[in-house]
Amino acid sequence: MRNRQLSVSALVRYLKGKLDQDPLIQRVIVAGEISNFTAHRSGHWYFTLKDEKSRISCVMFASNAVRCQFKPKEGDSVLVQANTSIFESSGQLQLYVTAMKPTGLGDLYLKFEELKRRLHNEGLFDPARKKPIPVYPMRIVVITGKNTAARQDVITTLARRWPVAQVSEIPVLVQGEGAAAQICAALRQADALNFDVMILARGGGSIEDLWSFNEECVARTLADLKTPVICGVGHEVDVTIADLVADRRAPTPTGAAEMATPQLAEVQGYCLRQRQQLIYLIHQKLRMQRQRYEQQRGSWIFQDPMTLLQPVQMRLDYNTSRLQNTSQRVRTQRTRLDQVSAILLNQTSKHVYLQQQRLGQLRLNLNHHQKQQLMLRQQQLKEKIRLMDAYSPLKILGRGYGLIAQNGHLVRSVQEVKIQEEMQIRLHDGQITAVVKEKEEQA
After folding, report:
1. Which of 272-276, 299-303, 405-409 has the lowest average pLDDT?
2. CB 149 within 8 A of CB 121
3. Any alpha helices (H) in 298-348, and if so which ranges?
4. How many other C-beta atoms can be found within 10 angstroms of the C-beta atom of residue 85?
């Protein structure tokens, strides 16, 4: 044998290198039908592309699969962009797919991109116009297909996370003829009922299956709503016009339910922490007020309120005595004046006349002086009375305080009070009789 011997791996490696360097079979566009499709948990897609006469194995790695606008299924006719190579482990020829789109749906992609561009220019995707989602929604409406997996996922998640909410449903068609009109009508109906939040949901599918959510009428209706909307249509890689216009986009219907509601256990924990903090603040405030009360209660003015009146009473007695002495002096002067008047009557008429005039003037002066003295003493007396009234215990009672007595004796300590005994509470406008139910002594 003139040819040199090769191992299988060396031959396969050689053929792979030749194929990888051939520009005619790199980045080729291949049309065919999907069969044996498998979506691996790693995110890679494995399938066979076939036509009437041949078939070839294909792989689409996760990094490319996530950019695909639809998830293929058995029997789908597609166009793929791929590189041709050999898988060394098995020596099998296969296509490494980098992009894929359904055959015959290219016009839908163009229509999608054109509407997306136009609505974006109008500002319908602007985050500034989107409404906030309420933190604790109590009335939620779910707009989705009837008896679908998406509906079950949303209802189950809402019941698990936030069972206190009232959940309503408006079933609609989610694909096919008339679906877009039903979705628009349901959105307007729910908006008129003043729900806290709406959830618009649908499971995954091809771009054709999801096209109802790419209709312009649905986008315009979503933009006009006053109720916030969470849109959870398709799988995480599916993006519709409704997703872009809605106030929040969720990757899945379950994700939409999670965005709409808090966890009840977390809310309960937060409320419990707030309650404990409030109780602590109330107890702290009560301690401060109790300390102020004890300080006021120990003041000497409440121990013996009569001590306020004693100095005032002494001053009043002193001023009363002075007023009486002044009155006595006035009476004495008047008596002396009468005596002088009698003496003057015995003098000559002219001298008597002159003296009478002088006496009359003196009398006027004396009366004026007496009135001045009386007015001065009366003013002083009124001032003393005003001071006595200001320091009166009744005035103190008028400010909300009370005097407590039991068996005719003032109560100055909790220890003097006996349970089930009557006590009298003197207020500024009357007296109350009360029965002691319980008492608490402060340490």
Report:
1. 299-303
2. no
3. 300-303, 309-345
4. 18
Closest of 143, 211, 220, 141 to residue 177, by C-alpha: 211
| Side-chain half-sphere exposure of 382, counting CA atoms within 13 A | 5
Using the 8-state DSSP alphabet, how is residue 98 labeled? Answer: E
- Amino acid residing at 225: L
198, with CB counted inside 10 A (0-12, 13-18, 19+), is buried
List helix spans (H) across 178-263: 179-192, 216-224, 241-245, 253-260
Supply the Cα-derived Rg of the chain in whole angstroms: 52
Q: Over the stretch 378-408, which tens digit does the pLDDT of each residue have?
A: 888 888 888 877 777 767 777 777 888 888 7
Distance between CA atoms of residues 94 and 136, nearest Å = 53
Rounded to an integer, what distance in angstroms lies between the CA atom of residue 418 and that of residue 126? 75
How far, in Å, are 23, 181, 190, 249 from residue 185 at the CA level?
54, 6, 9, 21
Give percent of the chain with pLDDT exceeding 70: 93
**How far from the centroid of its chain's Cα atoms is residue 93's Cα?**
62
Write the pLDDT tens digit of every residue in 87-116. Answer: 888 889 999 999 988 875 556 677 888 899
- The top-scoring range by mean pLDDT among 85-94, 123-132, 300-309, 344-353 is 123-132
Distance CA 13, CA 81 (A): 23
| Amino acid in position 332 | T
Q: Cβ contacts of residue 433 below 8 Å, gap of 6+? A: 422, 423, 424, 425
DSSP sequence for 404-441: EEETTEE--SGGG--TT-EEEEEETTEEEEEE------
Distance CA 227, CA 136 (A): 14
pTM, whole model, 2 decimals? 0.48
- Give the C-alpha separation, 185 to 187, whole Å: 5
Which residue matches tokens 């293929």?
72
Element (H, E) at 196: none
Element (H, E) at 164: none
pLDDT over 90 percentage in the chain: 43
